[in-house]
Amino acid sequence: MARKKSLKGLGARYGIKIRKEYTKIHFQLKEKRPCPECGSAKFGRVAVGIWECRKCGFKVAGTAYGVKV
């Protein structure tokens, strides 16, 4: 069984529950998403709540950690 990659930087601090939640949100932010306009996989977060396609320039406001288009 393969282990999920853990994040470095938190070490043994803050407790396991917070580290697991941090890891879950971090991987959710970094996953590749298709652009709703052009379909390319270059759709990502620019700032909190602002998502943009790096190919076509399409911008949309969404939630802080994900976008529902």
UniProtKB/TrEMBL annotation:
It comes from the Archaea. InterPro entries: Ribosomal_eL37/eL43 (IPR011331), Ribosomal_eL43 (IPR002674), Ribosomal_protein_eL43 (IPR050522), Ribosomal_zn-bd (IPR011332). Gene3D superfamilies: 2.20.25.30. Its cofactor is Zn(2+). A zinc finger (C4-type) spans 35-56. One of its GO terms (biological process) is translation. Zn(2+) binds at C35, C38, C53, C56. Pfam families: Ribosomal_L37ae. Keywords: Metal-binding, Ribonucleoprotein, Ribosomal protein, RNA-binding, rRNA-binding, Zinc, Zinc-finger. Coiled coil: none annotated. One of its GO terms (molecular function) is zinc ion binding. Binds 1 zinc ion per subunit. One of its GO terms (cellular component) is ribonucleoprotein complex. Binds to the 23S rRNA. Belongs to the eukaryotic ribosomal protein eL43 family. Putative zinc-binding subfamily. Part of the 50S ribosomal subunit. This is Large ribosomal subunit protein eL43. It comes from Cenarchaeum symbiosum (strain A).
